[in-house]
Amino acid sequence: MKKALTTLALSTVSVLALAACGTGDTAASSSAASDDGALKIVTTTDVYADLVKAVGGDKVEVTPLIASTAVDPHSYEASSQDRLTVKDADLVVVNGGGYDTFLTDMAGADNPDQVVVNAVELSDLFSAEDLAHMAEEHGDHAEGEEHVHTYNEHVWYDLDTMKKVADQIATDLGELDPANADAYTQAAAAFSGEADTLLTQLEAINTEERTYLATEPVSGYLLEDAGFSDATPSDLTAAVDSESDIAPLTLQEVKDTLTDGSVDLLSFNEQTQTSQTSEIYTFAREAGVPAVSFTETLPENTGYLDWMTTNIDNLEKAVA
After folding, report:
1. Which GO terms describe its biological process (predicted)?
2. How far apart are CA 47 and CA 43, in angstroms?
3. For the domain bounded by 7-198, which CATH number is listed?
4. What is the pLDDT of residues 40-82, one digit of tens each?
5. What are phi and psi of 94, to 5 degrees?
6. This prediction's pTM
């Protein structure tokens, strides 16, 4: 178990497969379908929305609640319109693990027949004890208690997890829309094939022991698959997670780590950057430590697999 811490072609395959299997009676045969025959899906971010589109093609109508790199998902607050959108959905895809409580709390609350896909629960990154701890921390957070994660909930950076999510989405869409079940399964298999290609690329990077320091743990699973070990001071992770200022002693420890030759890479989350994490980024660059920027959501006009390809390409260049 790991530490708890192109898409154009795919989309074309998905859409053509669905078009071949679709019939004019789809909407009538599926009580879950909307008036135009499309299933209504709501996701936390555009990352999961793109995954749904890859599997569902033109048979799904997907609405991500967050679709901009200018928005920090950790601090997002759902609107009344969001709640109405979620209520009308046939299927909701959440990340889980306390990342998107604004959606996990709404999913199924006003629509008991709603199907919910939870990426964290589908992954093999966490034990049953870990999942119970997450639920406990979520409860503490809801009651206003101090909340610092002891795990990495950014599971969309784990390609194996995303393959599992794609398979589950295909299964659930097939149950909601049996006429197109085979097409959903085929599209999920196509996605998994593309993801396997990226995993092979990551394995090629994993040729020697390397360490990284992260301003926020978003890219942790991807870096782990590339053979990196996490050398981030725990006090830095705790401060960023709790949205607190980084203590001067911790900031100095980070700078010392970046200059003593023990770190091969800085992972920088530009979507949650603060003046202090930006200072760390600038210091790393000046110290000659390669820095790679990552985000929580998709860059504009980019699909999930293309995004991961770019992330891996940037990682390869950084350690070349």
Report:
1. cell adhesion; metal ion transport
2. 8
3. 3.40.50.1980
4. 999 999 999 999 999 999 999 999 999 999 898 888 999 999 9
5. -115, 155
6. 0.86
Residue found under tokens 């870990």: 130
CB 38 within 8 A of CB 60: yes
User: Cα(2)–Cα(187) distance, rounded to whole angstroms?
Assistant: 27
In tens, the pLDDT along 76-115 reads 999 999 999 999 999 999 999 999 999 999 999 999 999 9
Enumerate the CATH 3.40.50.1980 domain ranges in the chain, comma separated: 7-198, 201-319
Residue 301 exposed, middle or buried by CB count within 10 Å (0-12, 13-18, 19+): exposed
